[in-house]
Amino acid sequence: xxxxxxxxxxxxxxxxxxxxxxxxxxxxxxxxxxxxxxxxxxxxxxxxxxxxxxxxxxxxxxxxxxxxxxxxxxxxxxxxxxxxxxxxxxxxxxxxxxxxxxxxxxxxxxxxxxxxxxxxxxx
Length: 123
Hints:
Blueprint: H1 3-26, H2 34-50, H3 57-66, H4 82-91, H5 106-116
Helix pairs in contact: 2-5, 4-5
């Protein structure tokens, strides 16, 4: 094999690897439905306090606060707007501490707010 042919064989796998890596980097990331993304944030950060059933202090607190006039489970409510959810998450309310951007990013907060407020019914 000639010296130039040998060099071509050595470069070809490297060039192929670079081409594959470059094309993979350009590929669009898989899209996640916003509500699915919001559900994941909710399950991680909110459900431990706000899910249905006993042992969820946020749900229990809202049951006492509203006395059954408003559903205590956040996902059952129709009065929460995305803006209100975002405000409560960032500022906290009563015994709920605020969540920092290092905990829930702005993008995650937008998805979370849309998910929690998905049942909102305008008056």
